[in-house]
Amino acid sequence: MTAQAEPALDAFFVDLHSIKQIGTDKPDVVTIAEEDGFFLNTAVADDFRIRRQVYEMMKKAQKRLPQGIHFMVFEAYRPLARQKMLWNRTNTALRQQYPDMPEKELHALTETFTADPFNGIGSGHQACCAIDISLCDSSGNEFDMGTKMHEFNEFTKTETTGLSAEVVRNRKILKDALEKEGLINYPAEWWHFSYGDHQWAYLVGETTCPFGPIDI
Fold first, then answer.
1. pLDDT tens, 185-195?
2. Would you say 127 and 213 are in contact if contact means Cβ atoms under 8 Å apart?
């Protein structure tokens, strides 16, 4: 992990508060299915619920992948209790790593890696419209993406220096397929894509978003 949050990301999280949520409280939620060609990896979580609109986009994106390449999904919906657990775990680990860091800076650094569950915005995972996703072959063997899922280091950013040509190519395949169907990558994490949440709205220049945190 880096010793401090980047200024651009500091501004990013502040600006999220200016985006208005206009969604309803009755989401149409389905479960990502292996029968639809997705590989589900339970190493991180085992809740693969997602909003139907996002799932339809994922299925269309899957058709854009080169022959023999498939999506492997690690996480979709994340309940509030799990988001709080991840926030506290990240915050504690960073406090141990940087014991002298002022609380405000520690909060900003924590938010770079884990969305704040207490600010009313939360994570796109809480809004049931974000996925942590990678690539694999037809046998479920993961592709080299430069880091493991949820491994935070200097190679976690989607576009950074020091990546091999293979990793750059794999990340481009992942990003191109999903973004051509409307899901947007969070630049600080190569694996995180969303549609319709505050983060998506900020990245595409919208002032409103259709989806907000739910607890189902």
1. 999 899 999 99
2. yes
Task: Establish how many alpha carbons lie within 13 A of residue 12's alpha carbon, considering only the half-sphere containing its beta carbon.
Answer: 21
pTM of the model: 0.87
- Would you tell me how many other CB atoms lie within 10 Å of the CB of residue 215? 11
In the chain, which residues have pLDDT < 70?
1-14, 25
Question: Is 127 in contact with 119 (CB distance < 8 Å)?
Answer: no
> What is the predicted pLDDT for the residue at 38?
98
